[in-house]
Specification:
This protein is mainly alpha-helical and 242 residues long. 69% of the residues lie in helices and 2% in strands. Helix 2 runs antiparallel to helix 11 and helix 7 packs across helix 9.
Length: 242
């Protein structure tokens, strides 16, 4: 019976983490209309940064997560500036290429990421202080609370001036530019916000899979490949904004 409970808790936790990833994608794709297949690349950047800083340098988990936010946001801004003039399938190809480059680096730079064997023994909050079953339940509660908080915040963003501008850019960026909106700035901001969602539980738009590292203390390049394959299977015409 305990095994089934642990399995259900594990699946619910992963469901919450991938829901947060989907919410991050909705900011970039659903609100701004930019087909981003490279979101997992931001997840990987933040995940590895947090894992390495907390494991190798012994930094506190909050500092590791804060550093993950900064690096993921910087990566988002860089990709957005690089692809500012691209649309549709061309943007999808470039962002997918970004995530693939990150995956290849994670798989081959063994000195840094331990390759496909992954990074193990990643520190987690209260790990070792409470029984494993209780720790998993606590972590599930944290993930559920973050999901609810992110949904609430994104609803606020959707109805805010920022959200209305993103939807205007999605519908017709030239009309938005004629109306006096700095389109490139808002596209970069959408990428930054979407990237932040991957790496910080209380950022302006939410959180996502980096939270899984303390609960499941191993991060591998194969996990990144699984998410790349899942996201790249989406049809560009299948996304719809709020």
């Amino acid at each position: 019976m305990a095994g089934w409970i642990n399995y259900i808790v594990s699946m619910l936790t992963f469901a919450g983490l991938y829901a947060l990833m989907a919410l991050g994608l909705n900011v970039i794709w659903g609100m701004a209309g930019m087909i981003n297949l490279g979101l997992v690349g931001f997840f990987a950047v933040g995940g590895y940064v947090s894992a390495l800083l907390t494991l190798k340098l012994g930094l506190p988990i909050p500092l590791g997560v804060a550093a993950a936010v900064a690096l993921a946001a910087a990566a988002g801004a860089l990709v957005a500036l690089t692809t500012a003039k691209l649309r549709g399938d061309y943007l999808a190809i470039v962002t997918l290429g970004f995530s693939e480059v990150v995956r290849l680096i994670a798989a081959n730079e063994i000195w840094l990421t331990n390759g496909t064997d992954g990074i193990s023994r990643i520190p987690g909050p209260w790990r070792g202080q409470v029984p494993p079953e209780q720790f998993n339940l606590i972590f599930l509660a944290i993930v559920a609370a973050v999901v609810l908080a992110v949904v609430f915040l994104l609803q606020r963003v959707r109805h805010s001036p920022f959200g209305r501008v993103l939807r205007a850019i999605r519908d017709d960026d030239q009309v938005a530019a004629v109306a006096g909106k700095w389109v490139i700035f808002f596209k970069v901001e959408a990428f930054v916000v979407g990237a932040k969602e991957g790496d910080f539980p209380v950022s302006e738009a939410g959180a996502r899979t980096v939270l899984s590292l303390p609960m499941y203390p191993e991060l591998t390049a194969d996990q990144i490949q699984d998410v790349v394959s899942a996201i790249s299977g989406f049809s560009p015409g299948g996304s719809s904004g709020p």
